[in-house]
Amino acid sequence: MRQPSISYKNHRFPPKIIAHAVWLYFRFPLSLRLVEEMLLERGIIVSYETIRRWSRKFGAVYAKQLRRKKPSRKDIWHLDEVVISIGGRRHWLWRAVDQDGYVLDEIVQARRDTKAAKRLLVRLLRKQGLSPKRIVTDKLRSYGAARRDVMPGVEHRSHKGLNNRAENSHVPLRKREWMMQGFRSTGGLQRIISVFSAVRNLFVPPHQKRSALAAHIHRIRAMAQWKAATGATA
C-alpha cells in the first residue's frame, strides 16, 4: 500500500483519535452525537461538530488511500437501483456490486431510465478498466438497452430472484439513512456513500469467507490496512 500523504497540521488531537472517530462514523450506522459519546467513554472530550468536520475533511482522503480490489474478467456485476428521498424529491441511487458483495460504484441520479443506466455502466467500465463476465439485474428494461449500447458482448441475466446480492447491499445505507433522519442533498449523499462503501469494502469479509476464524483474520488485516492508510499506526 502506498504511504499516505495526509496532513494533520494544526489539529489539536492526534491522528490516531481523528482516524478512530472517522472510522466509527463511517463503519457503523452511528450518529455524530453517538460517536461523541463513545469517545467520551474513553476519556476523549470532543464535540460532535468537530467529528463532523473531521469526517468531511478526512473521509474522502482516507477512502482514496484504501486498497481496492483488483478487477477480473471473471467478475459478475450485480446492478440495482433504490429510491432515496432528498428534500421531498425522489432520487435514485444506482449501485453495482460484484459476486463477493464488494461495492464497485454508486451514483445518485434524478432519473430511472436508460440514460441513467448507461451512465452507471460507462462509469463502471472506466473505473474497472475491463468488462465483466456477465451482468445481473432486475427486470428494469433500461439495463438491457444500456448494456446493448455500452457492452454488447457481455452476457446479461435479468431476473429479480438472481439479484439479491445487489438488493441486500442497500441495507447498510438504509440504516445510515434512518440514523441521519434522511439526507439533505445529492452532493452530501454522494460524498457519504463514497466513503461509507470504501470502508465497508475493507472490513466486511467476502461471501465465501463464512467461518468465524476467517472473518476474524480478515478484520484484523483490515484494521491494519486502515491504520496504515490513515497514518494512525503510532
Structural account:
- This protein is 50% helix and 15% strand.
- It is α/β, with parallel strands linked by helices.
- The mean pLDDT is 89.
Keywords:
234 residues; alpha/beta; Nucleotidyltransferase, domain 5; 2 domains; 5-stranded mixed sheet
> Number of DSSP strands?
5
Number of domains: 2
Helix fraction bin: 40-55%
As residue ranges, the low-confidence spans are none
What is the average of the pLDDT values? 89
How does CATH name the architecture of the largest domain? Answer: 2-Layer Sandwich
Principal-axis shape equals: globular
Question: What is the C-alpha radius of gyration, as a whole number of Å?
Answer: 19 Å
CATH class of the largest domain: Alpha Beta
Task: Offer a quick outline of the entry.
By secondary structure, the protein is an alpha/beta fold.
Please specify the SSE layout and strand pairing.
Layout: H1 15-27, H2 32-41, H3 48-65, E1 76-86, E2 89-97, E3 103-109, H4 114-128, E4 134-137, H5 141-150, E5 155-158, H6 164-168, H7 171-179, H8 186-203, H9 212-230
Parallel strand pairs: 1-4, 4-5
Antiparallel strand pairs: 1-2, 2-3
